[in-house]
Amino acid sequence: MPMEVRVRDVKRWAGRRITVPLEGDWPAALQELSEWPLVGRASGQVVLDNGGDFLAVALSGEAVVGAECGRCLQPVKLDVPFALRQEYREDEPGFEDEWLAYRQDVVELDDLVTQAVLLALPEVPLCRPDCRGLCPTCGRDLNDGPCGCAPPQDERWSALAGWHAIEAKKPQGD
Ligand SMILES: [Zn+2]
Ligand SMILES: [Zn+2]
């Protein structure tokens, strides 16, 4: 079943606003495009605003995805808050297709929900913000404690050391 919202009521007069729950199965396109599987069903809300000659649809909610921590590779369940707003016009004679259309008093939400969640997914999921990750030498999960390997040389510092060397070589004064 596609996600949709009925607008017969809200479209009657400008300034009217209604809020309805966002619920149902996640759109198939979203399941396909998301790098991580979505857990459970959609939950959130849809706020519809009659802006006069258009309807504004604002989605918000929270998706749960089953991801893998980008540092320690442990499975992690992430709550991903999402929000997106889009304007629609009724498809009628003279409709200009630069606008998104709704027909027969129904706004289809699948595309908007898909976009909203994809935009909200983190590029690198983390099990917690300060995850220590794996030791690059022995592979131990450093969240369980230190492993005793020599710390890897931090490239930021060696770059900085190189910069200092260049600065030192510059002639002083103007
Ligand atoms: Zn982690
Ligand atoms: Zn180690």
What is the structure about, briefly put?
The chain has 174 residues and is an alpha+beta fold. It folds into two domains: 4-120, no CATH class; 134-174, no CATH class.
Describe the structure using short key phrases.
alpha+beta; six-stranded mixed β-sheet; two-stranded antiparallel ribbon; 3 helices; 8 strands; binds zinc ion
Based on secondary structure, the structural category is alpha+beta
State the helix count.
3
**What are the segments in which pLDDT stays under 50 over at least 5 consecutive residues?**
none
**Heterogens:** zinc ion
Count of domain modules: 2
- The amount of helix comes to 10-25%
Cα-atom radius of gyration:
25 Å
Average of the residue pLDDT scores: 88
Portion of residues in beta strands equals 25-35%
Total number of beta strands = 8
Overall body shape: elongated
Q: Biggest sheet, open or closed, and with what strands and sense?
A: 6 strands, mixed
Write the element-wise H/E pattern from the N-terminal end onward: EEHEEEEEEHH
Gap between N and C termini: 73 Å
Protein described:
This protein is an alpha+beta fold and 174 residues long. The protein has 2 domains: 4-120, no CATH class; 134-174, no CATH class. 18% of the residues lie in helices and 33% in strands. It has 3 helices and 8 strands; from the N terminus they run ββαββββββαα. The protein has helices at residues 28-33, 110-120, 155-169; strands at 4-6, 17-24, 38-39, 42-50, 55-68, 75-90, 100-102, 106-108. Strand 4 and strand 5 form a beta hairpin. The longest helix has 15 residues, at 155-169. The termini are far apart. The structure holds zinc ion (2 copies).
